[in-house]
């Protein structure tokens, strides 16, 4: 079945999941962009439509364009692609806006070309979009966007992505307070050194989290969602963080932390009801402080980017 | 069936498994001590026989005695126990000699009392034996000795032990070069601080290792068995370490590192044949250097301390 057009859902993702700083990410199921990718005879990639956000449409300045070009370079395909993007994830929100576009584009192209590339290769192409967006070709958002569920970036040289399953009743609540946290600031603020003791705690927790995800042990997942290294520092840049976190835990969340480098805050819960209660508690904090916000409640997305049948 | 005597196998254990420094341990199947525990009317614990090693027999100075007393203190049992120990694991070898005695004693007593205590409680009692042996009540050897297979010590306060399964064809090879490495030296030599970058690598690898153990992915286990933090420093105290490791890897091992705080060196392999080849390569190194050694090849022990039917 040789198709010339595909309509895909490009999921938002949470990276830097507490103890999984810089390695662990997860894909969301009901938060994401829409994208249509169309084959054409002429070589190259054109962003023919970009709705929802003000972002560059020039191919070399657009993350979907750059990721797509990385794929085309390794492909035998003689033609090119037109891309329409319906951007719903806000840039700079901390839930993988650029990763959604980069991953969606390369996944869609791979489908239209009848899957010449592995998922790992698609991640490598999508990382070029991340390089454009942030200066660093990181994989912790594009990997879950392409593989689905949770993923661990075990190593970059060589790139080693470990897919990790998600318990069936795991839900994420994400609140995006409409403040600007410059990525450069949230990087600068990090310490270069940590104590060995802090490190041991962190890898103990990460081991517990991975084991909890494999065994569907929600209590263990909750106990392991700790971060004594990055969260205490970065949370200073997010007004209301401590209240949001304590409110979420009080409402029954398993754990709560900073999504990506912020300012979005995520919480995981067992079941949609609890996730909704967590959302209500989070909203209340920013209503009281007087900061605008978006809130999302989503099941974990087990497949990543997917085709939307229209 | 109210028994008055039990004969148990007390397994050797490997702690500080590469990226799992201070949190990950594993139990061995064919390396360990023998122990007979017998109920008696009189309160207290007596080490009535101790063969194989020169170790204190006074209850308060013997790890099995001290661990047993910790159990008795929490028990309704009005009587006491006599213990016979056949010590085969050399003290100071780095494969959990004290942990084997402490774990075996409390496990055996719990059986004779018809299991009033959970495995987690048994670990807590056995940790008192470790406190006597090394000054620190660490759990990374006693936890796998009692739970079997791999265990992760996620946290000490409260104590949180996470059991992790072992792939069916995983074998360990351990070589014990007969040199003395003082635990105090191997502790002093550690750095107090590490870089955040090193930390990220380490928890990425630990996540990969735990995932590999759950999915029986031997290649992933192998790729994850890295330690850039402790091994480069502590290995300086073990003559021949680099040759042993490169020889083991050349012979087909999945990974190789320091067992506990040394001087024993462990390697994991898929299948017994490879584990035997690894053993041969390790022996060769110490034969050439002229250091006496013991070598063990063992399947991973999935149940921990167990009854030996005589």
TrEMBL record, chains A, B:
Alphabetized Pfam families for the sequence: GHMP_kinases_C, GHMP_kinases_N
Keyword check for Kinase: yes
Annotated compartments: Cytoplasm
EC number, as in UniProt: 2.7.1.39
Biological process according to GO: threonine biosynthetic process
Pathway: Amino-acid biosynthesis; L-threonine biosynthesis; L-threonine from L-aspartate: step 4/5
Coiled-coil segments: none
Domain of life from the UniProt record: Bacteria
Similarity comment text for this entry: Belongs to the GHMP kinase family. Homoserine kinase subfamily.
PANTHER family: HOMOSERINE KINASE (PTHR20861:SF1), HOMOSERINE/4-DIPHOSPHOCYTIDYL-2-C-METHYL-D-ERYTHRITOL KINASE (PTHR20861)
Alphabetized HAMAP family for the sequence: Homoser_kinase
Biological function: Catalyzes the ATP-dependent phosphorylation of L-homoserine to L-homoserine phosphate.
Protein name: Homoserine kinase
Lineage: Bacteria, Pseudomonadati, Bacteroidota, Flavobacteriia, Flavobacteriales
Gene expressing this chain: thrB
């Amino acid at each position: 079945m040789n198709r010339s057009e595909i309509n895909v859902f490009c999921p938002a993702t949470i990276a830097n999941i507490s103890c999984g700083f810089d390695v662990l990410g997860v894909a969301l199921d009901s938060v994401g962009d829409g994208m249509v990718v169309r084959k054409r005879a002429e070589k190259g990639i054109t962003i023919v439509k970009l709705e929802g956000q003000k972002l560059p449409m020039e191919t070399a300045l657009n993350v979907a364009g750059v990721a797509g070009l990385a794929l085309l370079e390794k492909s035998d395909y003689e033609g090119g692609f037109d891309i329409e993007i319906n951007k719903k994830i806000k840039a700079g929100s901390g839930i993988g806006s650029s990763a959604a576009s980069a991953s969606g584009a390369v996944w869609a192209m791979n489908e239209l070309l009848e899957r010449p590339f592995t998922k790992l290769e698609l991640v490598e192409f999508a990382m070029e979009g991340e390089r454009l967006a942030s200066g660093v070709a990181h994989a912790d958002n594009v990997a879950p966007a392409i593989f689905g569920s949770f993923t661990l970036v075990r190593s970059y040289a060589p790139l080693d992505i470990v897919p990790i399953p998600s318990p069936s009743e795991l839900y994420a609540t994400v609140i995006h307070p409409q403040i600007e946290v410059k990525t450069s600031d949230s990087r600068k603020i990090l310490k270069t050194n940590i104590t060995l003791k802090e490190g041991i705690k962190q890898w103990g927790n990460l081991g517990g989290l991975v084991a909890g995800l494999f065994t569907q042990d929600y209590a263990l997942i909750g106990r392991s969602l700790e971060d004594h290294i990055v969260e205490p520092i970065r949370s200073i840049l997010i007004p209301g963080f401590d209240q949001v976190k304590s409110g979420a835990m009080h409402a029954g969340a398993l754990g709560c932390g900073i999504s990506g480098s912020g300012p979005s805050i995520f919480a995981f819960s067992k079941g949609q009801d609890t996730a909704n209660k967590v959302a209500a508690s989070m909203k209340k904090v920013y209503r009281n402080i007087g900061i605008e916000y978006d809130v999302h409640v989503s099941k974990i997305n087990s497949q990543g980017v997917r085709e939307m049948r229209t």
